[in-house]
Amino acid sequence: MIRKKFCRNGERVFQFKAKCWGAPVELQSPTPKKNTGGAARQIALAMELPFLLVGPAVIGGVIGFFVDRWLHTKPWVMIVLGLCGVVLGLFDALKMASAGDKKSG
Asked: pLDDT at position 42, please?
């Protein structure tokens, strides 16, 4: 026998009556919780975003600086690798934001 009950928050809870060695036992089916930690996830994303955007650009610029010193091509390799780092940082930030949208939606 299945009975439907509604909790205070409007979720439906199904109760099943089963018999266990002749004694009636009530089992509740687990209801999926929709709380995905949205606020904590957003704070974590906000704390990680500056490192995603600035980190690759700085690393590319530093590598470009040392390659420029080695090849004597002063700012060109640093600028190119720095811009590549900016593009990669934006790509990673957009990828992380779209992954967050898929999980929440």
From this structure: 83
